[in-house]
Amino acid sequence: MKDQFPVTKTDAEWKAELEPLTYHVMREHGTEPPFKNEYNRHKAKGIYFCRACGAALFSSESKFESGSGWPSFSAPIAESSVGREMDYRMGLVRVSIFCRRCGGHIGHVFPDGPRPTGERHCTNSAALKFIPASELQENS
Ligand SMILES: [Zn+2]
């Protein structure tokens, strides 16, 4: 299922295109440091896009302060934009989330979020690119 995405590149191509931390997170399933990341406490209105391929992933409307040190969202911008898979890395059983357009790793989803979804999409800032609502309106 993860073999075919609308945007497919080789590891060498991704490595040349992405910043080192973004490559590590999105292509090597890495995790950025908690708290010391770009969007943890970010509160502006707008959309968070995939930093690798530009697909819309999350809206500021669903962002909440989880205290985890990473940007957290109660839901993706659309069910079709974010995929899920079981993740057994690091001796843990978790559900990881990825961009359905390019397959890039975003973070994990946990069942301890706020209502109505009860879910916490724990993301890496390095996987996201925020565009403020004011700029989105100008371009549309
Ligand atoms: Zn993507």
Please identify the top-level CATH class: Mainly Beta
List SSEs in N-to-C order.
HHEEEEEEEEEH
Number of strands: 9
Radius of gyration: 14 Å
- Give the bound compounds: zinc ion
Binned, the helix content reads: 10-25%
The biggest sheet amounts to: 6 strands, antiparallel
| Shape, per Cα inertia axes | globular
Strand % is: 25-35%
Averaged pLDDT: 95
Q: Ends: how far apart?
A: 33 Å
Number of H/I helices: 3
Per the CATH scheme, the topology name is: Metal Binding Protein, Guanine Nucleotide Exchange Factor, Chain A
CATH homologous superfamily (4th level) name: Peptide methionine sulfoxide reductase
| Secondary structure category | alpha+beta
Poorly predicted parts: none
Tell me the strand order in the biggest sheet. Answer: 3-4-8-7-6-5
**Overall number of structural domains:** 1
The CATH architecture name reads Beta Complex
How would you summarize the topology of this molecule?
Blueprint: H1 11-17, H2 20-28, E1 46-50, E2 56-59, E3 63-64, E4 72-73, E5 82-87, E6 94-99, E7 105-110, E8 120-123, E9 128-132, H3 133-139
Antiparallel strand pairs: 1-2, 1-9, 3-4, 4-8, 5-6, 6-7, 7-8
The protein binds zinc ion (ZN).
The site of zinc ion has 8 residues, from loops.
